[in-house]
Amino acid sequence: MSQNEISNYVRTAEDVKKVIEHAKLSENDLKPNVQPIYFGEKFENYKLLQLDEHILADLKCGQTVVFKGDHKESAVLCTKSKTYDVKEAETSNSILLLPELTFPDEEFNNMELTSRKVVGIFHTYLEVKPCKPRLTKLRYLLKNCSYKGSELEKEVLETSEMYTFEHLSAKVQASDNELKDALKEMGAFQIDGNWRVLDFEYECRALSFLLNLIDEQSWPYNTIPMDETLNILGELLPPVILQHIIDQYSTWCVSSNLSQTHRSLIEDKVCRFMAVGLLRPCDKFNLSDFKTAWQGSVPEGL
Amino acid sequence: MILVKLIEDDNGLGSLPEWAAVEVQGELETRRHTPLERQYVGDLFATIHDGVPILIIGHHILYGKAQTFEKPFAVMKKKSDADEYVVEAIVTKKLLFKNRPKPIIACHSDDL
Description:
The complex is a heterodimer of chains A (302) and B (112).
Chain A: H1 13-22, E1 35-39, E2 46-50, H2 53-60, E3 65-68, E4 76-78, E5 83-98, E6 116-118, E7 120-131, H3 136-143, H4 150-159, H5 165-171, H6 176-185, E8 189-191, E9 194-196, H7 200-217, E10 224-225, H8 226-233, H9 239-249, E11 250-252, E12 262-265, H10 267-279, H11 287-297
Parallel strand pairs in A: 1-6
Antiparallel strand pairs in A: 3-4, 4-5, 5-7, 8-9, 10-12, 11-12
Helix pairs in contact in A: 7-9, 7-10, 10-11
Chain B: E1 2-6, E2 18-24, E3 40-46, E4 53-57, E5 60-63, E6 65-78, E7 84-97, E8 102-103
Parallel strand pairs in B: 1-7, 2-7
Antiparallel strand pairs in B: 3-4, 4-5, 5-8, 6-7
Protein backbone atom coordinates (compact mmCIF):
# COMPACT_ATOMS: atom_id res chain seq x y z
CA MET A 1 0.00 0.00 0.00
CA SER A 2 3.03 2.24 -0.37
CA GLN A 3 1.29 4.19 -3.14
CA ASN A 4 -1.31 5.27 -0.64
CA GLU A 5 1.16 7.59 0.97
CA ILE A 6 1.86 9.45 -2.26
CA SER A 7 -0.42 12.38 -2.30
CA ASN A 8 -0.87 12.79 -6.04
CA TYR A 9 -1.39 9.15 -6.76
CA VAL A 10 -4.01 8.52 -9.47
CA ARG A 11 -5.75 5.21 -10.03
CA THR A 12 -5.45 3.56 -13.40
CA ALA A 13 -7.75 1.02 -15.04
CA GLU A 14 -4.94 -1.49 -14.47
CA ASP A 15 -4.96 -0.89 -10.72
CA VAL A 16 -8.70 -1.35 -10.58
CA LYS A 17 -8.58 -4.58 -12.59
CA LYS A 18 -6.01 -5.90 -10.15
CA VAL A 19 -8.06 -5.03 -7.11
CA ILE A 20 -11.12 -6.75 -8.56
CA GLU A 21 -9.06 -9.85 -9.08
CA HIS A 22 -7.60 -9.79 -5.60
CA ALA A 23 -11.00 -9.35 -4.06
CA LYS A 24 -12.16 -12.38 -6.04
CA LEU A 25 -14.93 -10.38 -7.66
CA SER A 26 -15.93 -10.87 -11.25
CA GLU A 27 -15.79 -7.86 -13.55
CA ASN A 28 -18.93 -9.18 -15.26
CA ASP A 29 -20.95 -8.82 -12.07
CA LEU A 30 -19.93 -5.21 -11.60
CA LYS A 31 -21.20 -2.09 -13.28
CA PRO A 32 -18.60 -0.63 -15.61
CA ASN A 33 -18.47 2.73 -13.93
CA VAL A 34 -15.98 2.49 -11.09
CA GLN A 35 -15.50 5.45 -8.79
CA PRO A 36 -12.09 5.73 -7.14
CA ILE A 37 -12.44 7.95 -4.08
CA TYR A 38 -9.85 10.47 -2.97
CA PHE A 39 -9.70 12.93 -0.15
CA GLY A 40 -9.84 16.53 -1.37
CA GLU A 41 -6.88 18.88 -1.25
CA LYS A 42 -8.33 20.64 1.76
CA PHE A 43 -11.11 19.84 4.19
CA GLU A 44 -13.31 22.90 4.47
CA ASN A 45 -14.65 23.80 7.86
CA TYR A 46 -18.13 22.53 7.17
CA LYS A 47 -20.83 21.83 9.72
CA LEU A 48 -23.75 19.49 9.25
CA LEU A 49 -27.14 20.78 10.33
CA GLN A 50 -29.97 18.31 10.51
CA LEU A 51 -33.14 19.63 8.90
CA ASP A 52 -36.82 18.83 9.11
CA GLU A 53 -39.18 19.46 6.21
CA HIS A 54 -40.18 22.92 7.49
CA ILE A 55 -36.62 24.22 7.77
CA LEU A 56 -35.76 22.71 4.42
CA ALA A 57 -38.79 24.29 2.76
CA ASP A 58 -37.97 27.67 4.31
CA LEU A 59 -34.35 27.53 3.14
CA LYS A 60 -35.41 26.43 -0.33
CA CYS A 61 -37.67 29.43 -0.79
CA GLY A 62 -34.82 31.72 0.21
CA GLN A 63 -35.78 32.45 3.80
CA THR A 64 -33.07 32.93 6.37
CA VAL A 65 -33.07 30.81 9.50
CA VAL A 66 -31.30 32.04 12.62
CA PHE A 67 -29.33 30.60 15.54
CA LYS A 68 -30.22 32.52 18.68
CA GLY A 69 -28.83 32.54 22.19
CA ASP A 70 -26.22 34.31 24.27
CA HIS A 71 -23.39 32.63 26.18
CA LYS A 72 -25.63 31.62 29.07
CA GLU A 73 -28.33 30.10 26.88
CA SER A 74 -28.31 26.87 24.95
CA ALA A 75 -28.73 27.64 21.28
CA VAL A 76 -32.00 27.48 19.39
CA LEU A 77 -32.65 27.66 15.69
CA CYS A 78 -35.56 29.82 14.55
CA THR A 79 -37.39 29.85 11.26
CA LYS A 80 -40.00 32.52 10.62
CA SER A 81 -42.61 30.66 12.65
CA LYS A 82 -40.91 27.86 14.62
CA THR A 83 -38.26 27.38 17.29
CA TYR A 84 -35.94 24.37 17.57
CA ASP A 85 -33.64 23.16 20.30
CA VAL A 86 -30.13 22.63 18.88
CA LYS A 87 -27.76 20.01 20.24
CA GLU A 88 -24.54 18.59 18.95
CA ALA A 89 -25.00 14.88 18.30
CA GLU A 90 -22.17 12.41 17.92
CA THR A 91 -21.93 9.35 15.73
CA SER A 92 -19.33 6.63 16.04
CA ASN A 93 -19.45 6.19 12.27
CA SER A 94 -17.54 8.42 9.91
CA ILE A 95 -19.68 10.38 7.50
CA LEU A 96 -17.78 11.26 4.34
CA LEU A 97 -19.14 14.09 2.28
CA LEU A 98 -18.84 13.97 -1.51
CA PRO A 99 -20.14 16.74 -3.79
CA GLU A 100 -20.42 14.23 -6.61
CA LEU A 101 -21.21 10.56 -6.43
CA THR A 102 -23.15 8.16 -8.61
CA PHE A 103 -25.52 5.93 -6.66
CA PRO A 104 -26.02 2.33 -7.78
CA ASP A 105 -29.57 3.07 -8.95
CA GLU A 106 -28.48 5.99 -11.13
CA GLU A 107 -27.81 5.61 -14.83
CA PHE A 108 -24.23 6.41 -15.60
CA ASN A 109 -22.72 5.21 -18.83
CA ASN A 110 -19.14 6.17 -18.38
CA MET A 111 -16.88 3.16 -18.95
CA GLU A 112 -13.91 5.05 -17.60
CA LEU A 113 -12.94 5.58 -14.01
CA THR A 114 -14.63 8.56 -12.44
CA SER A 115 -12.69 10.08 -9.58
CA ARG A 116 -14.73 11.28 -6.64
CA LYS A 117 -13.59 13.69 -3.98
CA VAL A 118 -14.29 13.67 -0.26
CA VAL A 119 -14.53 17.25 1.04
CA GLY A 120 -15.00 16.44 4.70
CA ILE A 121 -15.28 13.72 7.35
CA PHE A 122 -17.82 14.14 10.13
CA HIS A 123 -18.43 12.51 13.48
CA THR A 124 -20.82 15.12 14.79
CA TYR A 125 -23.77 17.05 13.49
CA LEU A 126 -26.25 19.58 14.86
CA GLU A 127 -29.50 17.93 15.79
CA VAL A 128 -32.70 19.99 15.89
CA LYS A 129 -35.89 19.32 17.84
CA PRO A 130 -38.99 21.50 17.80
CA CYS A 131 -39.43 23.30 21.12
CA LYS A 132 -41.52 26.03 22.70
CA PRO A 133 -40.29 29.58 22.30
CA ARG A 134 -38.36 30.76 25.37
CA LEU A 135 -40.23 33.84 26.46
CA THR A 136 -39.16 34.41 30.07
CA LYS A 137 -36.49 36.81 28.89
CA LEU A 138 -39.00 38.79 26.84
CA ARG A 139 -41.17 39.40 29.91
CA TYR A 140 -38.11 40.34 31.92
CA LEU A 141 -36.75 42.75 29.31
CA LEU A 142 -40.06 44.52 28.85
CA LYS A 143 -40.79 44.68 32.56
CA ASN A 144 -37.50 46.50 33.05
CA CYS A 145 -38.55 49.29 30.73
CA SER A 146 -42.27 49.38 31.50
CA TYR A 147 -44.18 52.61 31.07
CA LYS A 148 -44.96 54.19 34.45
CA GLY A 149 -46.65 57.41 33.41
CA SER A 150 -45.62 60.59 31.62
CA GLU A 151 -44.08 62.12 34.72
CA LEU A 152 -41.65 59.20 35.12
CA GLU A 153 -41.07 58.55 31.42
CA LYS A 154 -38.00 60.76 31.13
CA GLU A 155 -36.27 58.89 33.91
CA VAL A 156 -37.23 55.49 32.47
CA LEU A 157 -35.87 56.48 29.06
CA GLU A 158 -32.62 57.60 30.63
CA THR A 159 -32.04 54.58 32.83
CA SER A 160 -33.55 51.63 30.93
CA GLU A 161 -32.73 50.03 27.66
CA MET A 162 -35.45 50.26 25.00
CA TYR A 163 -36.20 47.55 22.48
CA THR A 164 -37.42 47.71 18.91
CA PHE A 165 -38.81 44.53 17.37
CA GLU A 166 -35.41 43.84 15.78
CA HIS A 167 -33.68 44.16 19.15
CA LEU A 168 -36.14 41.78 20.78
CA SER A 169 -35.89 39.34 17.91
CA ALA A 170 -32.11 39.23 18.34
CA LYS A 171 -32.29 38.71 22.10
CA VAL A 172 -35.30 36.45 22.59
CA GLN A 173 -35.11 32.77 21.69
CA ALA A 174 -38.29 32.67 19.66
CA SER A 175 -39.24 32.89 16.00
CA ASP A 176 -40.52 36.24 14.75
CA ASN A 177 -44.09 34.97 14.51
CA GLU A 178 -43.97 33.50 18.01
CA LEU A 179 -42.51 36.77 19.27
CA LYS A 180 -45.32 38.77 17.65
CA ASP A 181 -47.91 36.47 19.23
CA ALA A 182 -46.25 36.79 22.63
CA LEU A 183 -46.16 40.59 22.42
CA LYS A 184 -49.86 40.60 21.59
CA GLU A 185 -50.65 38.18 24.41
CA MET A 186 -48.74 40.37 26.88
CA GLY A 187 -50.60 43.47 25.74
CA ALA A 188 -47.36 45.11 24.65
CA PHE A 189 -47.48 48.13 22.36
CA GLN A 190 -45.12 50.56 20.67
CA ILE A 191 -44.06 54.00 21.77
CA ASP A 192 -41.79 55.71 19.23
CA GLY A 193 -40.91 52.35 17.69
CA ASN A 194 -39.98 50.72 21.01
CA TRP A 195 -42.00 47.86 22.43
CA ARG A 196 -43.31 48.56 25.92
CA VAL A 197 -45.69 47.19 28.49
CA LEU A 198 -47.56 49.22 31.05
CA ASP A 199 -46.39 49.07 34.63
CA PHE A 200 -49.07 47.21 36.59
CA GLU A 201 -49.93 50.04 39.00
CA TYR A 202 -50.05 52.49 36.13
CA GLU A 203 -52.30 50.25 34.07
CA CYS A 204 -54.64 49.96 37.07
CA ARG A 205 -54.82 53.71 37.23
CA ALA A 206 -55.34 54.18 33.49
CA LEU A 207 -58.04 51.54 33.26
CA SER A 208 -59.77 53.00 36.32
CA PHE A 209 -60.00 56.35 34.56
CA LEU A 210 -61.98 54.67 31.82
CA LEU A 211 -64.16 52.60 34.16
CA ASN A 212 -64.87 55.58 36.40
CA LEU A 213 -65.84 57.70 33.42
CA ILE A 214 -68.32 55.04 32.31
CA ASP A 215 -69.78 55.01 35.85
CA GLU A 216 -69.97 58.80 36.14
CA GLN A 217 -71.66 59.20 32.80
CA SER A 218 -73.92 56.18 33.43
CA TRP A 219 -73.05 54.83 29.99
CA PRO A 220 -73.97 51.20 29.37
CA TYR A 221 -70.66 49.27 29.34
CA ASN A 222 -71.40 48.03 25.83
CA THR A 223 -72.15 51.45 24.30
CA ILE A 224 -69.37 53.88 25.11
CA PRO A 225 -69.25 57.02 22.92
CA MET A 226 -65.68 57.33 21.69
CA ASP A 227 -65.58 61.06 20.89
CA GLU A 228 -66.51 62.04 24.42
CA THR A 229 -64.25 59.41 25.96
CA LEU A 230 -61.21 60.59 24.00
CA ASN A 231 -62.02 64.22 24.80
CA ILE A 232 -62.39 63.75 28.51
CA LEU A 233 -59.64 61.16 29.11
CA GLY A 234 -57.29 62.95 26.71
CA GLU A 235 -56.70 65.42 29.54
CA LEU A 236 -55.60 62.64 31.89
CA LEU A 237 -53.63 60.27 29.69
CA PRO A 238 -51.13 60.69 26.83
CA PRO A 239 -52.79 59.86 23.46
CA VAL A 240 -50.71 56.71 22.84
CA ILE A 241 -51.56 55.29 26.27
CA LEU A 242 -55.24 56.18 26.02
CA GLN A 243 -55.44 54.54 22.63
CA HIS A 244 -53.69 51.44 23.98
CA ILE A 245 -56.07 51.11 26.95
CA ILE A 246 -59.05 51.50 24.62
CA ASP A 247 -57.65 48.94 22.15
CA GLN A 248 -56.86 46.45 24.90
CA TYR A 249 -60.12 46.62 26.81
CA SER A 250 -62.81 47.40 24.26
CA THR A 251 -64.00 46.64 20.74
CA TRP A 252 -66.16 48.56 18.30
CA CYS A 253 -69.89 48.00 18.77
CA VAL A 254 -71.41 45.42 16.50
CA SER A 255 -74.63 47.19 15.58
CA SER A 256 -74.08 49.02 12.32
CA ASN A 257 -75.25 52.47 13.39
CA LEU A 258 -72.78 52.49 16.30
CA SER A 259 -69.90 50.55 14.76
CA GLN A 260 -67.86 53.70 13.99
CA THR A 261 -68.68 55.76 17.04
CA HIS A 262 -69.22 53.55 20.07
CA ARG A 263 -67.20 50.81 21.71
CA SER A 264 -68.03 47.98 24.08
CA LEU A 265 -65.87 46.81 26.99
CA ILE A 266 -64.31 43.35 26.62
CA GLU A 267 -65.86 41.81 29.71
CA ASP A 268 -63.42 39.03 30.54
CA LYS A 269 -60.33 41.18 30.00
CA VAL A 270 -61.56 43.96 32.25
CA CYS A 271 -62.73 41.56 34.95
CA ARG A 272 -59.57 39.50 34.88
CA PHE A 273 -57.35 42.54 35.18
CA MET A 274 -59.33 43.96 38.09
CA ALA A 275 -59.29 40.58 39.87
CA VAL A 276 -55.50 40.43 39.57
CA GLY A 277 -55.36 44.01 40.81
CA LEU A 278 -57.34 43.08 43.89
CA LEU A 279 -55.52 39.85 44.67
CA ARG A 280 -52.00 41.05 43.97
CA PRO A 281 -51.37 43.10 47.11
CA CYS A 282 -52.61 40.50 49.58
CA ASP A 283 -51.81 36.96 50.73
CA LYS A 284 -55.39 36.01 51.57
CA PHE A 285 -58.75 37.34 50.59
CA ASN A 286 -62.03 36.03 51.96
CA LEU A 287 -63.99 34.74 48.98
CA SER A 288 -67.23 36.61 49.60
CA ASP A 289 -65.35 39.83 50.42
CA PHE A 290 -63.36 39.37 47.25
CA LYS A 291 -66.51 38.85 45.20
CA THR A 292 -68.05 42.02 46.59
CA ALA A 293 -64.90 44.04 45.94
CA TRP A 294 -64.51 42.54 42.47
CA GLN A 295 -68.10 43.39 41.57
CA GLY A 296 -67.61 46.90 42.85
CA SER A 297 -64.44 47.40 40.84
CA VAL A 298 -66.07 46.93 37.44
CA PRO A 299 -68.89 48.88 35.77
CA GLU A 300 -72.46 47.82 36.37
CA GLY A 301 -73.60 44.95 34.25
CA LEU A 302 -70.19 43.22 34.04
CA MET B 1 -27.60 35.79 16.53
CA ILE B 2 -26.13 33.87 13.60
CA LEU B 3 -27.90 33.84 10.29
CA VAL B 4 -28.11 30.75 8.11
CA LYS B 5 -28.60 31.51 4.43
CA LEU B 6 -28.65 29.61 1.23
CA ILE B 7 -25.64 30.03 -1.03
CA GLU B 8 -26.33 32.41 -3.91
CA ASP B 9 -25.43 31.65 -7.48
CA ASP B 10 -24.34 34.23 -10.06
CA ASN B 11 -27.90 35.41 -10.59
CA GLY B 12 -28.24 36.08 -6.89
CA LEU B 13 -30.79 33.31 -6.55
CA GLY B 14 -30.53 30.74 -3.83
CA SER B 15 -29.75 27.30 -5.20
CA LEU B 16 -29.33 24.06 -3.39
CA PRO B 17 -26.96 21.51 -4.91
CA GLU B 18 -27.35 17.97 -3.67
CA TRP B 19 -24.26 16.27 -2.29
CA ALA B 20 -23.82 12.64 -1.26
CA ALA B 21 -22.57 10.92 1.87
CA VAL B 22 -20.65 7.71 2.38
CA GLU B 23 -20.97 6.38 5.92
CA VAL B 24 -18.49 3.84 7.23
CA GLN B 25 -17.95 2.24 10.61
CA GLY B 26 -15.26 3.70 12.79
CA GLU B 27 -12.42 5.90 11.69
CA LEU B 28 -10.43 6.27 8.52
CA GLU B 29 -6.77 6.76 9.00
CA THR B 30 -3.61 6.24 7.01
CA ARG B 31 -1.14 3.62 8.12
CA ARG B 32 1.43 6.17 9.14
CA HIS B 33 -1.10 8.70 10.43
CA THR B 34 -0.19 11.19 7.76
CA PRO B 35 -2.83 13.82 7.00
CA LEU B 36 -5.75 12.48 4.97
CA GLU B 37 -5.90 15.36 2.55
CA ARG B 38 -5.18 14.43 -1.07
CA GLN B 39 -4.88 10.73 -0.22
CA TYR B 40 -6.44 8.00 -2.28
CA VAL B 41 -9.11 6.18 -0.26
CA GLY B 42 -10.46 3.28 -2.23
CA ASP B 43 -12.57 2.14 -5.17
CA LEU B 44 -16.34 2.17 -5.21
CA PHE B 45 -18.14 -0.46 -7.28
CA ALA B 46 -21.75 -1.50 -7.68
CA THR B 47 -23.09 -4.90 -8.64
CA ILE B 48 -25.11 -5.06 -11.85
CA HIS B 49 -27.83 -7.28 -10.44
CA ASP B 50 -29.03 -5.76 -7.25
CA GLY B 51 -27.00 -2.57 -7.19
CA VAL B 52 -25.09 -3.42 -4.02
CA PRO B 53 -22.36 -0.82 -3.48
CA ILE B 54 -18.96 -2.32 -2.78
CA LEU B 55 -16.11 -0.31 -1.36
CA ILE B 56 -12.58 -1.65 -1.38
CA ILE B 57 -10.21 0.19 0.91
CA GLY B 58 -6.70 -1.23 1.12
CA HIS B 59 -7.05 -4.90 2.06
CA HIS B 60 -10.66 -4.57 3.09
CA ILE B 61 -13.87 -5.07 1.25
CA LEU B 62 -17.11 -3.49 2.44
CA TYR B 63 -20.62 -4.30 1.24
CA GLY B 64 -23.15 -1.55 1.74
CA LYS B 65 -26.52 -0.25 0.69
CA ALA B 66 -27.98 2.99 -0.59
CA GLN B 67 -30.19 4.78 1.93
CA THR B 68 -32.04 8.01 2.42
CA PHE B 69 -31.31 9.94 5.61
CA GLU B 70 -34.31 10.06 7.90
CA LYS B 71 -33.74 13.80 8.07
CA PRO B 72 -31.60 15.55 5.47
CA PHE B 73 -28.53 17.58 6.37
CA ALA B 74 -27.58 21.06 5.35
CA VAL B 75 -23.87 21.48 4.69
CA MET B 76 -22.93 24.89 5.98
CA LYS B 77 -19.80 26.94 6.27
CA LYS B 78 -19.22 29.96 8.49
CA LYS B 79 -18.38 33.15 6.68
CA SER B 80 -15.04 34.55 7.79
CA ASP B 81 -16.23 38.14 7.69
CA ALA B 82 -19.68 37.84 9.26
CA ASP B 83 -21.73 36.00 11.84
CA GLU B 84 -23.34 34.01 9.13
CA TYR B 85 -23.46 30.44 7.90
CA VAL B 86 -23.90 29.75 4.22
CA VAL B 87 -25.65 26.55 3.25
CA GLU B 88 -23.70 25.23 0.29
CA ALA B 89 -25.51 21.96 -0.25
CA ILE B 90 -28.01 19.51 1.08
CA VAL B 91 -27.44 15.81 1.72
CA THR B 92 -30.38 13.45 1.56
CA LYS B 93 -28.83 10.16 0.38
CA LYS B 94 -25.97 8.01 1.57
CA LEU B 95 -24.16 4.82 0.88
CA LEU B 96 -24.08 3.07 4.23
CA PHE B 97 -21.35 0.52 4.96
CA LYS B 98 -22.39 -0.56 8.41
CA ASN B 99 -20.90 -4.04 8.44
CA ARG B 100 -17.39 -4.73 9.57
CA PRO B 101 -14.96 -4.68 6.67
CA LYS B 102 -13.88 -8.13 5.50
CA PRO B 103 -10.20 -8.67 4.85
CA ILE B 104 -9.18 -9.58 1.33
CA ILE B 105 -6.91 -12.58 1.37
CA ALA B 106 -4.62 -12.36 -1.57
CA CYS B 107 -1.21 -13.72 -2.41
CA HIS B 108 0.04 -10.48 -3.97
CA SER B 109 -1.27 -8.14 -1.35
CA ASP B 110 1.85 -6.02 -1.62
CA ASP B 111 0.61 -4.73 -4.95
CA LEU B 112 -2.48 -3.26 -3.38
